[in-house]
């Protein structure tokens, strides 16, 4: 069965690298295609293709059982880490791996693959730094948090990306995922999974969103990670 995603072809052929972007709760892949539009203005990304996976719909407990696209369930907005949908996260990590494998099967070298996401998608990205079965080119997490505890990650960890660069951007005034959750995620992955190239940046005044400054930092990260 084809993987469900919005796909943006590279402007020049052949495609030499790919950027995978996993969206947040209630969103869709289409909600992040602006990133492809933004990056493809630069000749540096002419041979870059983009894949924006779509999450399945599920009833979100924290939203009164409302049905919406989600990579895993959330139970309490006051503390999103109090109760964790471990199996839902693990299932979505398998989806992440399937998208990476799809690109490898299509001829893209693992080191030319970037995995990123926003909010829930960023949480999957951070977990994938430990669990991915491939050493890829880089990871970026926008407004992300640590979704699994060490005891849940350890059995599925591959630890192939300890030296892979990670960019993590977070708003200082994020009311949904407090910036402290981002700080703690960096500390967690550096301590327990030995990530050695984890760049965490706080954007003053930014809420649960992105900003021009964050986008510029992301561009620089992507160009360096992909050697563009």
TrEMBL record:
It catalyses: S-hexadecanoyl-L-cysteinyl-[protein] + H2O = L-cysteinyl-[protein] + hexadecanoate + H(+). Its EC number is 3.1.2.22. InterPro entries: AB_hydrolase_fold, LYPA1-2/EST-like, PLipase/COase/thioEstase. One of its GO terms (cellular component) is cytoplasm. Keywords: Fatty acid metabolism, Hydrolase, Lipid metabolism, Serine esterase. SUPFAM superfamilies: alpha/beta-Hydrolases. One of its GO terms (biological process) is fatty acid metabolic process. One of its GO terms (molecular function) is carboxylic ester hydrolase activity. Residues 6-225 form the Phospholipase/carboxylesterase/thioesterase domain. Transmembrane segments: none annotated. Belongs to the AB hydrolase superfamily. AB hydrolase 2 family. Hydrolyzes fatty acids from S-acylated cysteine residues in proteins with a strong preference for palmitoylated G-alpha proteins over other acyl substrates. Mediates the deacylation of G-alpha proteins such as GPA1 in vivo, but has weak or no activity toward palmitoylated Ras proteins. Has weak lysophospholipase activity in vitro; however such activity may not exist in vivo. This is Acyl-protein thioesterase 1. The lineage of its organism: Eukaryota, Fungi, Dikarya, Ascomycota, Saccharomycotina.
